[in-house]
Each structure stands twice: as C-alpha cells, then as structure tokens.
Specification:
Blueprint: E1 2-6, H1 10-19, E2 24-28, E3 40-43, E4 46-49, H2 63-71, E5 77-79, E6 84-88, E7 91-93, H3 104-119, H4 128-132, H5 136-150, H6 159-172, E8 176-178, H7 181-195, E9 199-201, E10 209-210, E11 219-221, E12 225-227, E13 229-232, H8 236-242, E14 259-266, E15 276-279, E16 285-289, E17 304-311, H9 317-331, H10 334-337, E18 344-352, E19 375-377, H11 389-405
Parallel strand pairs: 1-2, 1-13, 2-9, 6-15, 13-19
Antiparallel strand pairs: 3-4, 5-8, 6-7, 10-11, 11-12, 14-17, 14-18, 15-16, 16-17
Bound molecules: flavin-adenine dinucleotide.
Flavin-adenine dinucleotide binds near residues 30, 37, 51 and 57.
Length: about 400
C-alpha cells in the first residue's frame, strides 16, 4: 500500500518505522526538524526539549517500549529506580513510606482506597480529586501525580482514567529515560524509516487532505500526492480542518491540557536518583526530574539537567510562571539543599497551550484513532484509555496498525 503520513511527531514516526517494513511510506512534516514535541533542543551544552521531560511513563516495558522493539530501532530506555519519591516537609518519601505519615484511621481508609482501585470497585464517574477527598496527604500526592503525568489537576482527572493507569502501572511498572533523551528515540526511528525506503519531507505543510468515499479512488495530500490511506499525526482538530471529512462530534470536542516547563542547570546534583520527585506541597509545581543522572550528555560537562513541570491552572500565564519560579526558589533554597542559589541556573521557561499544548486531548477527552478505512489519527489527541502521554500516543499507533493489518 502507499501510505501518506502527516506530521513527524512520535505518532507519525512510530507508524512510519513499522509500516515501512511492508509498505511505501511518505511523511510530510511542516517544521524543519522531526520529532514534534519529543525531541532535543541543544542549548548552551544542555539537551533541553521541544516538549517532553526526557521520560517514558512505563519505561522499557510499556506500550512505548513495545513499539521501540517492534520497530527494531535499537533505542535504549533505562528504567528508573525508584519510580518516584514524594516531597513532604522537605523530606522525600517512597510510596510505601507515606503510610507512616497518616493516622491509624486514615491508614485504614487509604488501604481500602488502594484495594478498591486495584480491584476496580470504584465509582468511575467521579473525579480523582473527589476519590481522594478526606485524606489530606492523599489529596496532595494525587494532585502532584495527575499534574506531572497528565497536566491536569486531580479534580480535572476522571477516575475512569486513573483506574486504567493504575492497571497499567501494576502491569508495566514506572518510568524510564531513553539514552540520548527524546532525540535518542527520534534519531533511531528516522534511521529505520530511511533504511526501509521511507521518505521524509521536512518544511512541507499539508493544508489539503482528500479522503474519497469510493474505495477504488485514491486519497490525496495537497492535491499532488496520491495514497491508498492517510495517517494524520496533526491534532484531530487540524486534521478535520484540512480534510473534506467532518468526524468530530461538536459535543465531544477534545479539551487540551496546558503546562509550564522549567529547565535548570546545576553544578550540584539536586536529585540523586533517576526517578521523579513529586512536589506535593508546592503551590504550582508538580514535580521535577534529573535526566542527566541517566545520560550525562544531556547536561553541560560537570553539570546536571533538572526539568520541572507544572500544570497551568489559571489563565494568566505570567502569574502562573511566577508561582512556579517561587516554588523552585523554595524547593532549591540553600536551607533545604545546602547549595547556594548561584549554583543553579534557570535555563529556559517554556509554556504549552493553544496550538502547542501538553496534550491535544486531556485524558478522558480523546477521540478514536480510526476515522474510517482510509483516514487514521495518531498522537496525543487520540490516546487510548489509561495511556499517559507517549504511552497514550503509542496506544493510538497500536490501534491503527492493528486496523491496517486487517485491511
Ligand atoms: C512540557 C511537556 C512535558 C512533557 N513531558 C512528557 C514526558 O516526560 N513524557 C511523556 O511521555 N510525554 C511528555 N509530554 C507529552 C509528549 O511530549 C507528547 O504527548 C508527544 O510528544 C506528542 O506526540 P504526537 O506525535 O502526538 O505529536 P507532535 O509531537 O505534536 O507531532 C505532530 C507533528 O505534526 C506536525 N504537523 C502538524 N500539522 C501539520 C501539517 N498541517 N502539515 C505537516 N506537518 C504537520 C507538527 O509539526 C509535529 O511535528 C510532555 C509534553 C509537554 C508539552
């Protein structure tokens, strides 16, 4: 089959790397670089990113890891250990240790909550925030987790999603960091696509997609390129805008999630492990990691790269950034770290909303990846249920590949 792919983000590149084994694949990417919100930005010796925090939610073992294997791209993901620690009163606690901090009565309540979550006997229609109500530590821990992983407050996070996430966490485990950071994955996928004879056009904006009703007729991109099927890695809203089809129900529009990322360079290790520190008591910040603990090349020589993430809650972006910077000042103050403020430096503050959000569809508002037998969507506007970020992107690719294989 001749397959046209719009966009060279993770969704487009994973699809192309696997489909190019058997099919003729051509990718059209509007930017001068590939990788979308999942690649590195070289800045003063540090590998910052266009989006992601150099982290794969279920490490080498999740859906993303499965696609890395299936594409034979050879990229390597190092699983984090510990997965994450929770910062409470300036001390880091593992998940199990949190029990020490609650009263006997709350401990019983929390154990029941966890058991219900594992057994799936929770009201799926409530929010995660509502589920956690009544145990103050659980509320803070849950909010920092949903903020870090989904860029949603706990009250914006559907319980249905949390239950699916919990199932996958028990199955696959926690996060990991790819060698070379995000770009380590992108470079590896690009190599496979080119080796398989796939074509990647950069600086090519797709502004017209035609999907015929008649199966014999060809699909076209910008009136000049004919394909049997088209996969779009552009957001569902953009795809609908440029295509001749109307496939989004007006009452079920995807709602994007917004966020703020701060990249920090530090002479000292502000984290000693390769997992996440969830900042449960911060005003806005949800957590931070130090990916250079896995791959030193992500930071300037003799330095460390720390990435901090916050969900954007209110509309005034400048106020939101101020809150995040205050959180960073407090968390990394000399009093708590023993290191002087001059020893770390804010490298970049990046905001993600509008055309470039954290997710084109926040979890629970995703559309379905298969529009019909000729048009498919991949990416974070069509994540499968319980798919955290690039795991959700991978779920969309898996669903599309399964459908195409049956054609
Ligand atoms: C601050 C932040 C932190 C994050 N942290 C993490 C993390 O640590 N771990 C994680 O798993 N996920 C993380 N994510 C989410 C993750 O980065 C995204 O979910 C993922 O990169 C999205 O991939 P995608 O393929 O859906 O889309 P994109 O990366 O957006 O790719 C789509 C591509 O399509 C191209 N395109 C669009 N329209 C057209 C057109 N008309 N013609 C041609 N090309 C077009 C775009 O230029 C782009 O290259 C984070 C995101 C942000 C913003």
């Amino acid at each position: 089959m001749k397959i046209g792919i719009i966009g060279a983000g993770l969704g487009g590149l994973f699809s192309a790397a696997i489909l190019s084994k058997k099919h003729d694949v051509t990718i059209y990417e509007k930017l001068p670089y590939i990788g979308g919100r999942f690649t590195n930005l070289d800045y003063k010796g540090y590998q910052l990113t266009t989006g992601a925090l150099h982290m794969i939610p279920h490490g080498a073992n999740g859906f993303f890891g499965q696609l890395v294997q299936e594409s034979n791209c050879g990229a390597k993901i190092i699983n984090s250990n510990p997965d994450g620690l929770f910062r409470i009163n300036n001390t880091n606690y593992g998940f199990e240790e949190l029990k020490k901090l609650v009263s006997f009565k709350d401990k019983l309540k929390a154990l029941k909550m966890l058991a219900d979550l594992k057994l799936g006997t929770v009201d799926k229609d409530i929010s995660f925030g509502t589920f956690l109500e009544g145990i103050s530590i659980a509320e803070k821990v849950g909010n920092s987790f949903s903020g870090w992983a989904l860029s949603l407050s706990s009250y914006e996070t559907p319980m249905d999603e949390v239950m699916a996430i919990s199932k996958y966490y028990h199955k696959f485990g926690g996060p990991g960091i790819p060698l070379g950071g995000c770009k380590g994955i992108i470079d590896a996928l690009e190599q496979v696509i080119l080796q398989n004879g796939g074509i990647i056009h950069k600086n090519y904006i797709v502004d017209k997609v035609y999907i015929p009703e008649n199966y014999q007729e060809k699909c076209t991109i910008n009136d000049e390129n004919e394909f049997d099927i088209i996969i779009s890695n552009a957001s569902p809203i953009i795809t609908q805008k440029i295509s001749n089809l109307n496939f989004i129900n007006k009452n079920k529009m995807p709602i994007p999630s917004k966020g703020i990322k701060v990249s920090i360079g530090s002479r000292n290790k502000l984290i000693t492990h390769n997992g996440v520190v969830f900042t449960t008591e911060a005003e806005r910040l949800n957590g931070f990691n130090q990916p250079s603990n896995v791959d030193k090349s992500l930071a300037k020589e003799g330095h460390n790269l720390i990435m901090a993430h916050a969900t954007q809650i209110k509309n005034n972006i400048n106020d939101e950034i101020d809150l995040v910077l205050e959180d960073i000042d407090n968390l990394f103050s000399e009093e708590f770290t023993g290191h002087k403020k001059e020893d770390y430096k804010i490298l970049a503050i990046q905001t993600y909303r509008d055309e470039c959000p954290v997710n084109h569809a926040s979890n629970g508002t995703d559309l379905k990846p298969v529009v019909n037998d000729k048009l498919y969507l991949v990416g974070d506007g069509v994540k499968g249920k319980g798919g955290i970020e690039v795991e959700g992107v991978s779920l969309s690719v898996i669903e599309v590949l399964n459908h195409i294989n049956k054609l």
